[in-house]
What we know:
Strand content: under 5%
Number of strands: 2
Shape: elongated
Oligomer: single chain
Strand order of the largest sheet: 1-2
Structural class: mainly alpha
Radius of gyration: 21 Å
Amino acid sequence: MIANENLTLCPSCGINVDPGYARCPDCNFPLGTAAGLDPIGSIHDESRVLVKATETRPKPIVVVGVWIIFLPMLVGSAAVAIDILLNGSGSGGSGFAFFWIGVGLSVLSLTFLFKVTRNYLRKD
């Protein structure tokens, strides 16, 4: 079998891809700079990093980075929610909205921290 020299190798899944594609047709991984021009594609690519960090065993630098990003968000959003709950800060709808935003961000932060740390500490 003769390999086509014009094909490129997808760094994510390893299949041969025609160079005309901006994304791998198999795994949707961006193959060139043109893939980053699409705003929806950029959002997808950024979320891919967090999904990969929460599903596979991350490198130590990823664990440190996730803790640096999400620990302050966890502490701050939990503090806002607790302050609103205990002191009644905010009035009416705004207090209600900020309370639930704080709770949601706290849960999101705690989930990312837990999953990334658990995957890092697990044995293969």
